[in-house]
Design goal:
Chain lengths: ~600, ~180
């Protein structure tokens, strides 16, 4: 047990908070201006120190190029994992490091890793806490999205260390929110689901609370789905309605801020006007967005959370958990009325809005910090691992060693043997994820298992895979003679490659990428057209008469345009991509109708 | 071999109820958990308790552990009962159909293309659920014999029961995995 003070930090995509337990109660600490929310934005003025939070936001208004927001979307990931859209929509220039890491370019001579940017935010939170508490702080509990992988957790931990904070525990955000919800209900027994829809990530966790024991049963999520995506689709709608064409990075940033404002305003009112004065030279624009118009735009994004929820509910049920008593909403994006309405409709549970959407996670982090330093008693938190852990086997398949939703800490052993005479070691790739093929999962790194020289099959080495309470992996190998365990290093294969060779590889791949780009976009677009056109024809034949005539006309016109472009020479990739999008949009109602019919028909024959 | 019944301080019986496993785990977790225990952090003890609960709450792994503690291994040579064979011949085409729908759903990139497959998906879900119901009933038939396994003079019927349960558990997991995969699409 640790007696030294520990703070709790919610390091969010959009905003961050810091809290502590005082006299048994968790509280959020405010900065010098009395603000509890620190925007997760860092600005780098041309002359001077980096700015964090509100000051950085003000600087960003002057030059968006030298400021960085939503960095959490990039932490612990590889450059090759990013989609073109992610790079384009980041709002700041991103490039690959020599070993496939991500770098943010501030100016010609400066680049920073997402870890370094996060460290600046964490250092600011540490300073806020120290000023408020009037003592130095060196330990913290930090929350991460439940669905964060091993690499993302490790990167967050390293960021804290560079900010001068030892990580006492990594806690999953929805679990932290459940602690905040349950702290005053310790005598009760309940099963709760926490729906955590934040700025950049989404998680759903199901927990059982039994007399102060908080046990996570199942969790599911998407680390690339959040309020940012709602803003993006609103932006896209506005840009296309106003026919703005290609946007420069500065224009994109301005519009994104307006889209976010509109989203927030429309949570309260029925109509909102987006104003773009002198947007392009003398040209000004105005666009009126209604709440229903916005809801139609964001509905597909909200819908994506549904299947994730269903998965967590199904797994909880398979593990023998009973009905969910309460559905607790946290995260800024749960303020959107459509989200609340949909949840009630999907799960027939009235959303529980008792928790402050921005503060519940930080309060939970503070409570866990309080548990660890002895300020909170009789509360125990038990979590699960969100992703299956495995190793690559022959044929590039993933062999699961610790399945997802296993209670942590946990361990699992595997026995390895030499396949040929005199083999000295064996390389094993460690993976995390749910896909069958190893290439579709996260590669955590490689371990090298040492063998005593001998005949084929004579060496037997026991390897233990242990997940600690932070959800972080440690691999131990047992020396059969001494019985001692040694930690095996998990080597990130990309790091060891010769620098010059990597640089060449990177330049080459960029050159090729530009050559292929148009052809690649065309091939993708054409595949989509080939999927859509026959589907449209048979869907219209099947249930065309159910749709209003106007809709059918719209669909037929959109389909005709797609067919025309597919046959056109030379290939116009961009036009085909757009035409596909129009057809895709026009057929949404048709798609919804088909799904309704399929499921009502199926349950009818039950 | 760690005796997992001992880890949770439970009687070494096949008839132990999942609810008593849960409350034993609760007790162990509260007293041993490094966050609250006064002693040094002991991840190994907590890991053991977690493993014990996961093994003992599931009838198949409980029976297997119980037999292992008695030095008995699952029989590999046993003949498959006609009921199991019958179930298997019904299960296989359903799983194949599920895989086919799942892979087509994964490939479909538009809402309309996915919707065109919705009827087929709903249908295959129903068929999986039906089979899962059968599997559950057959599992129950074996677990109802646990008392008889304990009282028997030798372990042959218990070992045979374990063989059956292992098949049923594997198929149950396959079915559940397909259902969850279909949910995510």
């Amino acid at each position: 047990m640790n007696e030294e003070l520990i703070i709790g930090i919610d390091l969010g995509t959009t905003n961050s908070l810091v809290g502590v337990v005082d006299s048994g109660f968790p509280m959020i600490l405010a900065d010098e201006q009395g603000q509890r929310l620190t925007p997760s934005v860092v600005a780098f003025p041309e002359n001077g120190q980096p700015l964090v939070g509100r000051e950085a936001m003000r600087a960003a208004n002057i030059s968006s190029q030298r400021s960085v927001g939503s960095i959490k979307r990039f932490i612990g990931r590889r450059f090759s994992q990013l989609s073109e859209e992610e790079i384009h929509e980041a709002g700041f220039p991103i490039e690959s490091s020599k070993n496939d890491g991500i770098l943010v370019r501030i100016d010609e001579s400066t680049t920073l890793s997402p870890e370094q940017v996060s460290a600046l935010i964490l250092a600011r939170l540490k300073a806020i806490a120290e000023a408020a508490l009037e003592e130095t702080v060196s330990q913290a509990v930090i929350t991460v999205p439940a669905y964060f992988s091993n690499s993302q957790r490790e990167a967050t931990k390293r960021a804290a260390e560079s900010a001068g904070l030892t990580v006492a525990r990594i806690v999953n955000e929805p679990t932290a929110a459940a602690l905040a919800y349950g702290l005053d209900k310790l005598e009760e027994n309940q099963t709760v689901a926490v729906y955590d829809f934040g700025g950049g990530t989404f998680d759903l966790s199901i927990l059982q609370m039994r007399n102060g024991l908080f046990e996570v049963i199942s969790t599911a999520g998407d680390t690339q789905l959040g309020g940012d995506d709602l803003d993006r689709v609103i932006l896209e709608k506005v840009a296309s309605e106003l026919a703005l064409g290609e946007l420069t990075p500065d224009e994109y940033a301005t519009l994104k801020a307006l889209a976010r404002e509109a989203k927030e305003a429309l949570s309260e009112s029925e109509e909102h006007t987006l104003r773009l004065p002198f947007f392009r030279g003398e040209k000004s624009y105005e666009f009126v967005l209604s709440r229903s118009g916005m809801e139609a735009t964001i509905a597909p994004i909200v819908e994506r959370t549904r299947s994730i929820c269903q998965r967590a509910f199904a797994e909880a049920k398979n593990k023998g958990s009973g009905e969910v008593d309460h559905l607790i909403l946290v995260g800024g994006s749960t303020r959107v009325p459509l989200v609340q309405r949909q949840l009630e409709e999907w799960f027939a549970l009235p959303p529980n809005l008792s928790q402050h959407p921005d503060e519940a996670v930080a309060l939970g982090a503070a409570i866990q910090a309080g548990i660890l330093c002895g300020r909170v008693r009789n509360v125990v938190l038990v979590d699960v691992t969100p992703l299956s852990l495995g190793i690559e086997t022959f044929g590039g398949l993933m062999n699961v060693i610790i399945p997802r939703n296993t209670t942590i800490p946990t361990k699992a052993g595997e026995l390895f043997t030499n396949a040929v005479d005199g083999q000295e070691s064996m390389a094993i790739r460690i993976l995390q994820g749910e896909r069958e093929l190893s290439k579709d999962n996260w590669l955590l790194g490689e371990i090298h298992i040492p063998f005593k020289p001998g005949r084929k099959g004579s060496a037997r080495v026991g390897v233990q895979f242990a997940l600690d309470q932070n959800g972080i992996l440690e691999v131990l190998v047992r020396d059969t003679e001494t019985g001692e365990d040694h930690v095996l290093e998990i080597r990130d294969s990309a790091v060891d490659v010769d620098d010059e060779a990597v640089e060449k590889m990177v330049t080459e791949s960029i050159d090729h990428a530009f050559d292929d780009m148009n052809e690649r976009v065309w091939t993708e677009a054409k595949l989509k057209s080939e999927e859509l056109l026959p589907a449209v024809a048979s869907a219209l034949e099947l249930i065309g008469e159910e749709l209003p005539g106007d809709d059918i006309e719209k669909i037929r016109a959109a389909a005709a345009e797609v067919s025309r472009l597919v046959g056109k020479e030379p290939h116009d990739a961009v036009a085909l991509k757009k035409a596909n999008q129009v057809l895709d949009d026009a057929t949404q109602t048709l798609a919804a109708l088909l799904i309704d019919m399929a499921y009502s028909g199926a349950s009818g024959s039950d | 071999m760690t005796n997992l019944f001992d880890v949770l301080d439970l009687p070494q019986s096949l008839l132990v109820e999942p609810s008593s496993v849960d409350s034993a785990w609760d007790r162990a977790t509260r007293s041993q958990h490094p966050d609250v225990s006064e002693s040094e952090r002991d991840d190994a003890a907590v890991s053991d308790a977690n493993q014990a609960r996961s093994v003992l709450s599931d009838p198949t792994s409980r029976l297997e552990h119980w037999l292992t503690l008695r030095g008995v291994e699952a029989r590999r040579d046993q003949s498959i009962s006609p009921e199991l064979m019958d179930l298997f011949t019904k299960l296989n085409p359903v799983l194949t159909d599920a895989d086919s729908v799942i892979s087509r759903l994964q490939k479909a990139s538009t809402a309309l293309a996915k919707a065109m497959l919705a009827k087929e998906a709903a249908n295959v879900q129903l068929r999986i659920q039906e089979i899962l119901g059968k599997i559950m009933a057959m599992k129950l038939a074996v677990t109802e014999r646990f008392e008889e396994f304990e009282k028997a003079g030798d372990y042959s019927s218990a070992s045979e029961g374990l063989g059956q349960l292992k098949f049923l558990k594997k198929w149950e997991q396959q079915g559940q995995a397909k259902l969850i995969a279909l949910l995510g699409l």
